[in-house]
Each structure stands twice: as C-alpha cells, then as structure tokens.
Design goal:
InterPro entries: NAD(P)-bd_dom_sf, Sc_DH/Rdtase_CS, SDR, SDR_fam
Protein name: 3-oxoacyl-ACP reductase FabG
CATH superfamily: NAD(P)-binding Rossmann-like Domain
Keywords: Oxidoreductase
Organism: Paenibacillus arenilitoris
Helix content: 40-55%
Structural class: alpha/beta
Distance between the termini: 36 Å
Number of strands: 7
GO molecular function: oxidoreductase activity
Number of helices: 8
Shape: globular
Order of helices and strands: EHEHEHEHEHHEHHE
Radius of gyration: 17 Å
Strand order of the largest sheet: 3-2-1-4-5-6-7
CATH topology: Rossmann fold
CATH class: Alpha Beta
C-alpha cells in the first residue's frame, strides 16, 4: 500500500475557505494536492503557493461540477500527471438563502446540480481507481443543516441531507473494496460564507452554541484529514458533525 506521502488528494472547491484549509492540512503532511476550482483562478493559485511552501506537489485545475464532460477531462488530465486521487474530498458547493415559495426551478436545478450532481459525478469518475487498488477515501463536506434543516434554507438543506444519505448508502457498497465513505457536517464556521451576517447577528448566533464560538476552517480540515488516514479504515458510513455542541 502507498504511504500517505505517495497519495494524492483532490479537493473540489479547494481554492478558499474550508477547501483551502483542507488543502493546506494535507500539504503539511506531504500529500500530493489537486485543487479544483471553477472561476477563482488567482485565489486557487494563492492556495497552491501556500501548499507548495509547505513542501507539497500541487496541481490546480478548473472544471464545472455540473458538467460530466468537463469532469471527464479533469480526470484524464490527472491520469496523465499520475495524480488520480486516492482521497476525494467533495467540498465544492453553493448555498441558497430564501423562502421556499420564492425558489425558482432554475434555483432548484442549479443548487442540486452543483451540490448533489457534482458530488455524484466526481465520485463515479474517481472511485474506479480506488476500487482497483483496493484503497480509497471519499469524504463529503456536508452541513449541520443536512441534519437539522434550516428555515429559509430548504433547498440547501435538502442537498446536504441528500449528501448524507448518499454517504451512508455508498459506504455499504464500497466497504469490501477497501474504500471508506464518510461525511463531515460542520456547524457554523468562520469563513467568507458568513459575510451576510452583521456583528449583532453573529453575536446572537454564538450565544446559541454551547462552545460559545464559531468553528474554524482548520478544525474542519483536521477532521477531514483524520478520516483520510489508513488507520481510519473502520470508520465508514458516518456523518460526523463538528458543531460545538449546537446539534447533538
């Protein structure tokens, strides 16, 4: 079996926020890094430079998660570079805030296509490599809203709930192939996704969390890293929610 330093991790939506923190966490351990992004070219390059400064071999690649054709091209490029992922982190996604009565079909289709179809396509395209070598880790970055639901985030919550069900079902399908499938469902994390909240709203939200604070992207990255380790092979089909005790 490969050592961790011989493995490759692909992080979708890896240019910023939790995705960038995950990339840096793996880079610190010498894992080969593939940072996927859609349009954030410069930000992806900044994250790549930070990973290279930690000693990692890094490749950045752009693809639309809604497009099988683009993702197939991404897979083929990674194969040419000898960087088919041993660890797939399905982190790419988009949010949507608004009452269900105001959600359009276009809104519904777009969020479903990125958050669920994108995860499905990436998993389907990269799992054969893992099955063939009888080792792999698939880690889906979900959300606490996929567990508890959120008012005015029905669409987003639905996609994350679907991600959790996908995780549990696929884990059973791949267990005998040596591939684990888990989901990480963070609570409130201090990233740029919080820019829509003012300081008063943030303070009120913090008071609801038993830990008294938001999580950090680095804390989420540490859990993702742990689930990727060879010694985590008996953990599969789990949805783990680091949320400061907010939801138990």
């Amino acid at each position: 079996m490969k050592t961790l330093q011989q493995m490759t991790v692909l992080i979708t939506g890896g240019s910023r926020g939790i995705g960038a923190a995950i990339a840096k966490r793996f880079a610190a351990e010498g894992v080969n890094i593939v940072i996927h992004y859609l349009q954030s070219h410069e930000i992806a390059n900044e994250t790549a430079r930070a990973c290279m400064a930690l000693g990692a071999n890094v490749l950045t690649i752009s693809a639309d998660l809604r497009s099988r054709e683009q993702l197939e091209r991404m897979r083929d490029k990674l194969a040419v570079h000898g960087m088919l992922p041993d660890i797939l982190v399905n982190n790419g996604g988009i949010s949507h805030y608004g009452m269900l009565m105001d959600v359009t079909e276009e809104d519904w289709d777009d969020v479903m296509a990125v958050n669920l179809k994108g995860m499905f396509l990436c998993t389907q395209l990269f799992m054969p490599h893992m099955v063939a070598q009888r080792y792999g880790r698939i880690i889906n970055v979900s959300s606490i809203w996929g567990l508890s639901g959120a008012s005015c985030e029905v669409l987003y919550s639905t996609t994350k709930g679907g991600m959790n069900a996908f995780t549990k079902a696929l884990a059973k399908e791949l267990a005998q192939a040596g591939v684990t499938v888990n989901a990480v469902a963070p609570g409130v994390v201090d990233t740029d996704m919080m820019v829509g909240f003012n300081e008063e709203e943030k303070a009120a939200l913090e008071q609801e969390i038993p830990a008294g604070r938001f999580g950090s992207a680095e804390e989420i990255a540490s859990l993702v890293y742990f689930l990727s380790l060879p010694e985590s092979s008996y953990i599969t089909g789990q949805v783990i929610s680091p949320n400061g005790g907010w939801h138990t």
